[in-house]
Amino acid sequence: MSGRGWARNWGDAWERRVPPLLAWALAGGAVWALGRVWPAPSWGGPGASLVGGLLAGAGALVAGAGVWQFRRAATSLSPFAGAGVRVLVVDGVYGWTRNPMYLGLALALAGVVVWRGSWAAVAPWPLFCAYLQRFQIRPEERDLSAAFGAEFAAYQARVGRWGGRRG
């Protein structure tokens, strides 16, 4: 087997294995630990606490709006294997981002990074976002494409993955 095939199989094997909230908690723990082990250079202070809190709060609101809309549409909140997806939610916060729950987690983690105030603590944030992109979002979008076909393709063309309307 070629090296590329091995990497693809390994990556596929890790798709949707770690629940996003657990991945967020692990990344948050890494932010905290890195900020503690390598506190300097830093940008901490009262401003960092305020901005970090605002980012985390915004993340919670965005994620909460996504959860609320899924509940209202009576569709599954499970991040695993397209379980129970009955309807494609495209309005409200989903009219602005295809992944408000994941965007909310990313914003909340960014808030923790800013609040921590250490440059070393930044490292887990892009890794967390890359994890979500590769191991959660891409497989979920494959499932949605299979389930909703042209309707999902039109939605993808209209709404960005991490935010923003297109065309």
Poorly predicted runs are none
> Can you give the mean pLDDT?
88
SSE arrangement, N to C:
HHHHH
* Shape, principal axes of CA atoms: elongated
**Alpha-beta classification:** mainly alpha
The number of strands is 0
How many strands, what sense, and barrel or not for the largest sheet?
none
Proportion of beta-strand residues: under 5%
Oligomeric state of shown chains: single chain
The helicity comes to 55-70%
How many angstroms does the end-to-end distance come to? 42 Å
Summed up, the helix count is 5
Rounded radius of gyration (Å): 17 Å
What does this structure look like?
The protein contains five helices and no strands. By secondary structure, the protein is mostly helical. The protein has a domain of 110 residues. Helix 2 runs parallel beside helix 4 and helix 2 packs antiparallel against helix 5.
